[in-house]
Recover the amino acids of this structure.
């Protein structure tokens, strides 16, 4: 009886709300993608399909407008470098914080968690001030943006990895130690492979967060050469813009979704090989 | 492993690069905001001169800001911000709770697909999702077409002319995915046997929901609310983007951004950041304690 009650069809009202919500959340994006293939200048009504705003237009298309493809290059460069720095930094920090005991350790753990609850605007302002007032020797633009992105994302990496570390426990490492491995060998040969899926998940989260970031990149941008895709979309709203913005956003969407899709497939294979939960659930309270 | 002094040093060594990074690029920058807020302004260049020593802090800028917050023009902006965020949170709960509840407890076989659809907005840039709305809400956009086709409206209107409903709906649209996922995972963890027990003891489905499921989901609901509300308070781009920067829907983030980047009074902006953080402190601490409790539970 109770089994029958919990069947999917048991809540038609809720099902309707849920699927309506999903249509509402995704349909506008599909419309924006469609407009990127518009042959005319309008960003609201579709005339006929064309690739004008990707490469056809001699001045305004993503391919031919330097500012647009520079923004795309900047976004991808930042995201790639951010992954390469934030993930190793976060993994090491997670392993350290998981085992380190004492007051300093507790304080470090608290410090690591504060960025997660700090609004991005505060990050933007604080980094903007520190790079103009304190660390004035650093080259502005991409470099400081990268430092900002890493600072903003590293705590997420630590939380994801720690969730997985807690699930693994220390018995595997202990076994490796008993069999004669040194502490570092045990980490390298036993722990890191077991952390594989969580490391992979961290790479995905860091990439997506960096690509999506607007506030920090914007506060630390020094001009057109250091603008990213979100900044371009934002500033395009005021200036009379064309569907080239939609084309730019669509390209970014394709890149991100491809990356996520491939990563998802790899994760699934890793999990099938017995590596367990990726620890992503620890991010969602 | 017994915690020997050597092992302590090894583990501290692992954490050291990350801790150093956060000290240099999180703690120092936040302190720099304080130093600018309580510092001086170069009379000629109008650039801030931070005061690092707390004994020499100058509170005059903060006093002016607080005067303007309590009863002045900035107060209006703060109250408006609270209204927008509050209404957007109500919207998130009204939409997000049924969706998360359905996905977690009722979806059955469609759950995998549903979950993928709920996660998808995470991988779509926030500003692209806003861009999509500006396309739809133009005077000749599809929203007007649909409304006219349904005969709900005779003449097309510009939805982006600085009206607050556009901002609140935009905030809900932007942040509700971040609300649904944490709530989903907490609803999903509720022990199904408790709900069955409620039914077996004679409660109706509605009663069981009200007296069992709902109370058990309160911690998840709180966490989801806090984690969506915190970034909303710092939001200045959603409202600007959806209204072409109309001052009628200005939020506190706009004032902060203005004073820091486009005015000659950066210490006002820095002071506003401190006021905002003081107001959000309770929420931030609440969420920190939630994460720490989870860490402890995971360690057990």
């Amino acid at each position: 009886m109770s089994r029958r009650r919990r069947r999917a069809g048991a809540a038609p009202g809720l099902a309707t709300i849920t699927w309506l919500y999903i249509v509402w959340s995704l349909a506008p994006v599909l419309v924006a993608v469609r407009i990127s293939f518009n042959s005319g200048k309008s960003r609201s009504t579709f005339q006929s399909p064309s690739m004008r705003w990707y490469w056809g237009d001699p001045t305004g298309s993503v391919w031919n407008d330097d500012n647009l493809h520079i923004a795309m290059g900047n976004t991808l460069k930042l995201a790639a470098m951010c992954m390469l720095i934030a993930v190793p930094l976060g993994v090491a920090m997670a392993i350290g914080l998981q085992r380190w005991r004492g007051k300093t350790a507790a304080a470090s753990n608290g410090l690591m968690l504060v960025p997660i609850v700090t609004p991005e605007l505060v990050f933007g302002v604080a980094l903007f001030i520190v790079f103009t007032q304190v660390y004035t020797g650093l080259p502005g633009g991409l470099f400081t943006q990268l430092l900002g992105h890493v600072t903003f994302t590293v705590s997420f990496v630590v939380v994801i990895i720690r969730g997985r570390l807690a699930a693994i426990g220390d018995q595997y490492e202990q076994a490796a130690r008993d069999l004669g491995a040194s502490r570092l060998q045990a980490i390298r040969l036993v722990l890191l492979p077991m952390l594989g899926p969580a490391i992979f998940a961290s790479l995905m989260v860091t990439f997506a967060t960096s690509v999506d970031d607007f506030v920090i990149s914007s506060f630390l941008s020094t001009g057109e050469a250091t603008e990213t895709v979100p900044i371009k979309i934002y500033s395009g709203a005021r200036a009379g813009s064309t569907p080239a913005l939609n084309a730019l956003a669509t390209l970014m969407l394709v890149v991100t979704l491809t990356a996520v899709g491939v990563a998802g497939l790899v994760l699934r294979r890793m999990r099938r090989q017995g590596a367990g939960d990726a620890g992503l659930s620890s991010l969602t309270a | 492993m017994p915690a020997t002094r050597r092992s302590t040093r090894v583990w501290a060594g692992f954490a050291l690069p990350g801790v150093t990074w956060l000290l240099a690029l999180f703690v120092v920058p936040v302190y720099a905001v304080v130093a600018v807020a309580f510092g001086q302004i170069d009379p000629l260049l109008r650039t801030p001169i931070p005061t690092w020593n707390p004994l020499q802090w100058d509170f005059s800028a903060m006093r002016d800001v607080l005067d303007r917050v309590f009863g002045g023009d900035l107060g209006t902006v703060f109250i408006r911000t609270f209204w927008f965020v509050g209404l957007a949170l109500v919207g998130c709960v009204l939409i997000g709770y049924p969706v998360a509840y359905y996905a977690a407890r009722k979806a059955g076989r469609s759950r995998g697909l549903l979950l993928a659809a709920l996660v998808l907005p995470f991988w779509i840039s926030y500003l692209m999702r806003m861009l999509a709305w500006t396309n739809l809400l133009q005077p000749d956009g599809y929203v007007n077409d649909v409304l006219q086709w349904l005969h709900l409206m005779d003449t097309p209107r510009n939805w982006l002319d600085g009206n607050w409903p556009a901002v609140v709906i935009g905030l809900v649209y932007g942040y509700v995915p971040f609300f649904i996922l944490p709530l989903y995972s907490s609803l999903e963890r509720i022990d199904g046997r408790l709900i069955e027990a409620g039914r077996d003891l004679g409660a109706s489905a509605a009663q069981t929901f009200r007296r069992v499921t709902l109370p058990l989901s309160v911690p998840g609901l709180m966490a989801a609310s806090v984690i969506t509300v915190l970034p909303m308070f710092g939001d200045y781009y959603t409202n600007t983007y959806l209204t072409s920067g109309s001052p009628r829907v200005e939020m506190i983030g706009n004032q902060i951004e203005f004073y820091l980047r486009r005015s000659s009074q950066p210490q006002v902006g820095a002071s506003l950041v401190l006021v905002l953080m003081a107001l959000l402190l309770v929420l931030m601490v609440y969420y920190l304690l939630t994460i720490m409790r989870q860490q402890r539970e995971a360690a057990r």
